[in-house]
Specification:
This protein folds into three domains: 272 residues, Thrombin, subunit H, CATH 2.40.10; 94 residues, Pdz3 Domain, CATH 2.30.42.10; 96 residues, PDZ domain (Pdz3 Domain), CATH 2.30.42. It is built from eleven helices and 32 strands.
């Protein structure tokens, strides 16, 4: 069987690979001191440490998260609303059953702020958070970031036990770690192991930088904390490498330092704003380094530069090798996207490159990364036209010959919907609604919502094969 990387949330009784745990962040002063791991071996197990004191102290901060997915509606949304990231490639529940999922999390603030994975709560209609003392409270999403698979939840509570956050940069390969979560729906399960590797790239997203561990992690652990031997959270359990859906001793956790940087923005704004340079990069191999006469094999090789981007305006070209960004030298190409993403929009940074063996420095003013934002309107609103929409990236606008702020992309068209009847297709770009230009999902939704039910909405559409055309769609 082919080995694959899986995220390990639980969907109903079916174990999937999005892990599904969560936890709460907080300052060390908000949490009693964590007991040190005893080096005194328990009876019958000479030479092995006991984590009993650690688990007893941190377990109250770990929560179980149960999710009810969106209910598919009749007519144009039959089969819609089932989150594929949570339930796999198909809906195992069939028909119109309400899909369920399970994961983990941990409390990061005493007033009910909880960290988990995005894939645990994505497209959730109802969220229930269960604590170690048996209390169950409804939860709501404060913010999500699919690119890093992080999400922040809130429950109405006070004086909760808070998990203490550590420093994942201090974690060393070979250190003991403890995972607590709800694998296969079994509450408060504890597993232990060591850190197997750091800085792993597994193809989960553009900002991969995972901690690898052999602590057994299984479906339902997603979003749960990975503790060091002092009881500090150093990672968020997210994915496993598996041949059959269960743990084989290769698990991956998001470093807690990444979460600490993004949590305040997710809580305040619901999303993450990232910097954008406008280059695509690849690894500089010895063969490429020799052909490009760089004399170096570290850095990121620029494979492409987006027209009109900050990099293009500054003078960067394909074939340049970026060796230092804003004063930071990096050995791995995968480090550059994270450095750029963390740069404040509007900041001017120095970018050092090698071009034809010669060192050069460019000053680049970082712009905002245009995120593809999925429509978040409930099915009742989306069903007015039968469309699933998202915003366009800068590259997509360039390929479609669109202006910087023009158009919204059609992702899906519901069968037998008003949009399908009007001839709209996936890949079409909606330029105007009732003669008003639109460039965002929210703007388009507002324009459609303002149309009285039963009237015709006039859309200017650019199909994938070009040739703009007007269509009318009945608003329900």
């Amino acid at each position: 069987m082919k080995a694959i990387i899986k995220r390990t949330a639980m969907a109903g009784a079916t174990a999937l690979s999005l892990l599904g745990c969560g936890f709460a962040l907080g300052r060390a002063t908000e949490h009693p001191p964590i007991a040190q791991v005893t080096t005194e071996a328990p009876r019958g197990e000479p030479g092995r440490p006991s984590f009993a004191a650690l688990v007893s102290d941190v377990e109250p901060a770990v929560v179980h998260i149960r999710v009810t997915g969106a209910m598919p509606t009749a007519g144009p949304f039959e089969g819609f609303g089932v989150p594929p990231g949570l339930f796999g490639d198909s809906n195992p529940f069939g028909g119109r059953a309400r899909p369920r999922g399970s994961g983990s999390g941990f409390v990061i603030r005493a007033d009910g702020v909880i960290v988990t994975n995005n894939h645990v709560v994505e497209d959730a209609k109802d969220i229930r958070v269960t604590f170690s003392d048996g209390r169950e409270l409804p939860g709501r999403v404060l913010g999500r970031d699919p690119k890093t698979d992080l999400a922040i939840l809130k429950v109405d509570a006070t004086a909760l036990t808070v998990a203490r956050l550590g420093d994942s940069s201090d974690v060393k390969v070979g250190d003991w770690v403890v995972a607590i979560g709800n694998p296969f729906g079994l509450n408060n399960t504890v597993t232990a192991g060591i850190v197997s590797a750091k800085g792993r790239t597994i193809g989960a997203g553009p900002y991969d930088d995972f901690i690898q561990t052999d602590a057994p992690i299984n479906p339902g652990n997603s979003g749960g904390p990975l503790f060091d031997e002092r009881g500090n959270v150093v990672g968020i359990n997210t994915a496993i490498f598996s041949q059959g859906g269960g743990s084989i001793g290769i698990g991956f956790a998001i470093p807690i330092n990444l979460a600490k940087r993004l949590v305040p923005e997710l809580e305040a704004h619901g999303h993450v704003t990232r910097g954008w340079l406008g280059v695509s990069v690849q690894k500089l191999t010895p063969e490429l380094a020799s052909s490009l006469n760089t004399g170096e094999t570290h850095g990121a090789l620029v494979a492409g530069v987006t027209a009109g981007s900050p990099a293009a305006r500054a003078g960067l070209q394909p074939g340049d090798v970026i060796t230092r960004y804003d004063g930071t030298t990096f050995d791995q190409t995968t480090m550059l996207p994270s450095l750029v993403a963390a740069t404040p929009v509007g900041k001017t940074v120095s970018v050092e490159v090698l071009r034809d063996g010669e060192a050069r420095t460019f000053e680049v003013t970082v712009a905002k990364l245009a995120e593809p934002v999925e429509a978040t309107a409930p099915a009742s609103e989306r069903a007015r036209l039968g469309l699933m929409l998202r915003e366009l990236t800068a590259d997509e606008r360039e390929r479609r010959e669109l202006a910087a702020h023009e158009g919204v992309l059609v992702v899906e068209v519901a069968p037998a919907s008003p949009a399908a009847d009007a001839g709209l297709h996936s890949g079409d770009v909606i330029l105007r609604v009732n003669r008003t230009s639109v460039d965002s999902v929210e703007g388009l939704k507002a324009a459609v919502t303002s149309a009285p039910a039963g009237t015709k909405v006039l859309l200017l559409v650019r199909p994938t094969d070009g040739g703009d055309r007007f269509v009318t769609v009945a608003a329900r």
